[in-house]
Structure to design on (711 residues):
């Protein structure tokens, strides 16, 4: 590797064709000052390739060119190219010269001829207009007229010599050589003579024409090997070159709403700006509704949005979404939202990609929906559709478009069948919608299978459609079964009833306890009142008694005084001892208690 | 194409009018030299002096040839009498040349 590099430090000069994709495949275009051969069957795109290179050179680099048409009338060629936005008729007036080299059928052929005359004419013309590019289109037609392999070889040599003498930036020869390798020997020589060979192929896959291109030879240069899809758009041919291996997209930390609040929560705050989301599910699982919600949310934020629907008219989708509370029509009117719908039966996947690119260029969306992207796999080969889906996602990422695509799953096991298009691996977020059928009901379940770079819920949610839009509801798992729909409702009601009952029971108990407490409290109050009364009573009784004692002794004195007798001895023995006796009993009671207390203290 | 002056059949036994022809050659290319020789032989045998031949070297006058709609060399163009005709090749296939020129080969 290093040795060859040092041996050939000068890279082969190349000249860009301006054909999107091809210059990447060939690492720069066609070999400069050399001859390239485009070979392939009829209608495989050779002429368009050659003409487009010529047009690009004339328009971008102001390099005049000559187009020698052996197969078709030049007027036909110009008319055929009118569908491309090249402005060919104007170019044909000054920058490009078309030489009609088709031998008319009434020309009589008698013996051998050669191309020296034609080459002399071309030389004169080249010098006249200063042509830098030359195309020999359909050289096999003329060579066949020679009817002699030796003569054919001789004329090929003649062309080679002419090209060597009359240096042009690039010479392109196109020839119909069967791609299956049955080409005759001298055409093989044609391939040997040139420095670059590009093989074109047009084949039918499931009734859809697919175009392919492959660089089979590039002398002195490396190139991207392999067969690549070719598509035709308004600006001409485009080659589906593989994206550069290095991914340069910048990850954004900004979140955008997925349109459903609860879904945003499940995704840890929404989708990342510029990320791609895949929604899979069997038909009828509300993929379009979620997509519509996403689009509506984007429009509400004022972001330009593109909604591409396959096999269903945009107008109908907008109408259908109205029934679940998604209003798109106002956004269409304001121009924020662009809806585009296309049939998929008739076009190959490649053409869809070209159309999508054009739409993106025109509308410059920040958010985009494709519903369903799986439709592009309906026609043509699955491999092509896969490549297109991948390239579309990469394209959207490069353009920093937040994209949401839906895909129809035929089965209901996301883990096993994933998607035919295999986009589940490159999508950042994968939401799967499924049906759960239980108790005679079909309910929609939503699961986030993956969401790169963010926390996301692992819970299954029930997707309920209402007039106000899709709502995500919790699901119950009971005995290992997920409950949805009516079962969920029943469970919810049951839970509610249970809660109510619990609350009632609690309230009841509380009341009971409160009552008991109040009762006790009142009883305490009553007892305290009793106590108080008794104390008062006691006090009253004591003072009463004292009073009585005092009064009785006073009475006695009084009586004694009145009688003037001497009953003192009698009275003293009658009253005083009783009082003394009571006092003594009191004192003994006190002393007894006190001694008991002393004994306790001593202990 | 070039006028309808005469309705003469091209298959007359001999040609009364003068046949005007142009032969486009590429200098000394072998086929060109052979074409001149072949044509001269045909003219001598069938047209005697009733022909006019212009030989144009395409290498010298390429734009003239282009204007005349000539591509490959050698090419023979019959200008008059109508119908005009074009023969490409070194004219080695004599019957086809005679047919194109409207000369019927006399039965020998």
């Amino acid at each position: 590797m290093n040795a060859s590099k040092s041996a050939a430090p000068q890279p082969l000069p190349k000249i860009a064709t301006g054909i999107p994709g091809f210059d990447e495949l060939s690492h720069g275009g066609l070999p400069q000052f050399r001859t390239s051969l485009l070979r392939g069957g009829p209608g495989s795109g050779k002429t368009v390739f050659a003409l487009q290179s010529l047009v690009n050179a004339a328009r971008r680099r102001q390099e005049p060119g000559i187009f020698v048409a052996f197969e078709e009338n030049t007027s036909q060629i110009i008319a055929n190219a009118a569908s491309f936005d090249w402005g060919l008729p104007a170019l044909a007036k000054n920058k490009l010269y078309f030489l009609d080299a088709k031998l008319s059928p009434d020309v009589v052929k008698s013996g051998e001829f050669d191309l020296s005359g034609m080459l002399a004419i071309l030389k004169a013309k080249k010098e006249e207009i200063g042509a830098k590019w030359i195309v020999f289109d359909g050289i096999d037609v003329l060579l066949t007229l020679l009817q002699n392999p030796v003569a054919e070889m001789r004329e090929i040599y003649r062309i080679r010599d002419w090209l060597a003498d009359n240096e042009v930036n690039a010479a392109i020869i196109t020839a119909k050589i069967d791609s299956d390798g049955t080409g005759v020997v001298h055409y093989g020589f044609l391939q040997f003579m040139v420095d670059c060979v590009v093989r074109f192929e047009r084949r039918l896959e499931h009734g859809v024409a697919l175009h392919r291109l492959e660089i089979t030879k590039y002398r002195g240069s490396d190139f991207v090997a392999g067969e690549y899809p070719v598509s035709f758009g308004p600006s001409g041919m485009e080659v589906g070159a593989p994206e550069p291996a290095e991914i340069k997209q910048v990850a954004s930390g900004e979140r955008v709403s997925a349109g459903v609040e609860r879904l945003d929560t499940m995704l840890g705050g929404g989708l990342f700006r510029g990320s791609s989301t895949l929604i899979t599910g069997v038909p009828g699982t509300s993929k379009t509704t979620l997509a519509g919600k996403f689009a509506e949310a984007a429009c509400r934020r004022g972001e330009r949005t593109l909604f591409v629907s396959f096999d269903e008219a945009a107008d109908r989708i907008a109408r259908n979404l109205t029934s679940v509370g998604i209003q798109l029509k106002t956004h269409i009117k304001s121009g924020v939202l662009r809806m585009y719908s296309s049939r998929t039966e008739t076009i190959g996947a490649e053409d869809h990609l070209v159309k999508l690119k054009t739409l993106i260029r025109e509308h410059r969306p920040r958010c985009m929906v494709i519903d369903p992207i799986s439709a592009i796999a309906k026609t043509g080969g699955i491999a092509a559709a896969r490549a297109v889906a991948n390239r579309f996602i990469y394209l959207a990422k490069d353009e920093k478009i937040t994209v949401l695509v839906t895909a129809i799953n035929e089965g209901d096991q996301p883990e096993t069948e994933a998607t035919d298009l295999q986009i589940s691996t490159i999508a950042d977020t994968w939401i799967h919608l499924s049906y759960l059928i239980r108790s005679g009901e079909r309910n929609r379940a939503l699961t986030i299978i993956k969401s790169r770079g963010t926390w996301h819920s692992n819970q299954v949610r029930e997707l309920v459609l209402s007039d106000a839009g899709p709502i995500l509801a919790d699901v119950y798992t009971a005995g290992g079964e997920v409950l949805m729909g009516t079962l969920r409702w029943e469970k919810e009601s049951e839970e509610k009833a249970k809660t109510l009952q619990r609350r009632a029971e609690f309230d009841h108990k509380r009341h009971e306890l409160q009552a008991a407490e109040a009762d006790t409290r009142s009883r305490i109050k009553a007892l305290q009142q009793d106590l108080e009364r008794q104390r008062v009573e006691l006090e009253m009784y004591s003072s009463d008694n004292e009073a009585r004692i005092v009064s009785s002794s006073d009475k006695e004195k009084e009586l004694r005084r009145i009688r003037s007798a001497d009953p003192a001895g009698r009275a003293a023995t009658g009253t005083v001892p009783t009082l003394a006796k009571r006092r003594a009993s009191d004192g003994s009671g006190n002393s007894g208690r006190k001694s008991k207390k002393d004994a306790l203290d001593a202990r | 194409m070039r006028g309808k002056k005469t309705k003469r059949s091209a298959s007359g036994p001999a040609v009364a009018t003068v046949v005007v022809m142009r032969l486009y050659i590429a200098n000394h290319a072998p086929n060109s030299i052979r074409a001149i020789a072949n044509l001269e032989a045909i003219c001598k045998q069938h047209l005697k002096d009733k022909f006019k031949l212009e030989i144009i070297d395409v290498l010298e006058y390429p734009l003239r040839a282009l204007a005349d709609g000539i591509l490959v060399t050698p090419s023979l163009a019959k200008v008059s009498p109508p119908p005009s005709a074009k023969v490409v090749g070194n004219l080695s296939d004599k019957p086809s040349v005679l047919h194109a020129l409207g000369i019927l080969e006399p039965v020998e």
In short: Chain B has one domain: 19-101. DSSP finds three helices and four strands in chain B. Residues 23 and 55 of chain B are 5 Å apart (CA to CA). Helices of chain B lie at 30-47, 62-67, 94-101.
